[in-house]
Automatic annotation (TrEMBL):
<dbReference type="InterPro" id="IPR036638">
    <property type="entry name" value="HLH_DNA-bd_sf"/>
</dbReference>
<feature type="compositionally biased region" description="Low complexity">
    <location>
        <begin position="1"/>
        <end position="11"/>
    </location>
</feature>
<feature type="region of interest" description="Disordered">
    <location>
        <begin position="1"/>
        <end position="21"/>
    </location>
</feature>
<feature type="coiled-coil region">
    <location>
        <begin position="45"/>
        <end position="107"/>
    </location>
</feature>
<dbReference type="Pfam" id="PF00010">
    <property type="entry name" value="HLH"/>
</dbReference>
<keyword id="KW-0175">Coiled coil</keyword>
<protein>
    <recommendedName>
        <fullName>BHLH domain-containing protein</fullName>
    </recommendedName>
</protein>
<comment type="similarity">
    <text>Belongs to the bHLH protein family.</text>
</comment>
<feature type="domain" description="BHLH">
    <location>
        <begin position="4"/>
        <end position="55"/>
    </location>
</feature>
<dbReference type="GO" id="GO:0006879">
    <property type="term" value="P:intracellular iron ion homeostasis"/>
</dbReference>
<keyword id="KW-0805">Transcription regulation</keyword>
<keyword id="KW-0804">Transcription</keyword>
<dbReference type="GO" id="GO:0046983">
    <property type="term" value="F:protein dimerization activity"/>
</dbReference>
<dbReference type="InterPro" id="IPR011598">
    <property type="entry name" value="bHLH_dom"/>
</dbReference>
<dbReference type="InterPro" id="IPR044818">
    <property type="entry name" value="ILR3-like"/>
</dbReference>
<dbReference type="GO" id="GO:0003700">
    <property type="term" value="F:DNA-binding transcription factor activity"/>
</dbReference>
């Protein structure tokens, strides 16, 4: 070698070499934070390649997990819509049954001028007969009711009684 000539390894300009060394130091600090930087560039590159492979494998696992979660979300949404449809169908069925029940109860209701047996006066309640020592022979029959419902309304008007009937002495 000639004394004034540079070798091939020295042809790299110093600023470029310094930048490469800085980048390797940054890469080493990223790969192993808190540890002293390695001087061997081959070790730094092999650690970086190993870490990249680990990250790729982890990313692949996360993608598969994401796909399975998306599939389960789709199936749950489908199930949710099916349940909503069933709920609306059951509501409609309930409404229909309530209307049918109202129709049956309206058809089976007694005449409007007859009171319901449960609405009768307490003195006509079967318990009142049991207290007096009497009982209803047929418990399936309604309790006795007053007959004032069948009296014409003109006879029930007592405002003209003194004119029609003199007072009894």
């Amino acid at each position: 070698m000639l004394p004034g000539r540079r070798t091939a390894s020295r042809t790299t300009p110093p600023p470029r070499r310094d930048r490469l060394n800085e980048r390797f130091n940054e890469l080493c600090a990223i790969l192993e934070p808190g540890k002293p930087p390695k001087a061997d560039k081959v070790d730094i590159l092999s650690d970086a390649a190993r870490l990249l492979n680990q990250l790729r494998a982890e990313a692949q696992k996360l993608k598969q997990s994401n796909e399975s979660l998306q599939d389960s979300i789709k199936s749950l949404k489908a199930e949710k819509s099916e349940l909503r449809d069933e709920k609306t169908r059951l509501k409609a069925e309930r409404e229909r049954l309530e209307q049918m029940l109202k129709g049956v109860s309206a058809a089976a209701a007694p005449a409007p001028f007859l009171p319901h047996p449960a609405a009768s006066a307490p003195s006509f309640h079967p318990a009142a007969f049991a207290q007096a020592g009497k009982f209803v022979l047929y418990p399936t029959y309604p309790p006795p009711a007053a007959f004032w419902q069948w009296i014409p309304p003109t006879s029930l008007d007592t405002s003209k009684d003194p004119a029609h009937w003199p007072p009894v002495a």
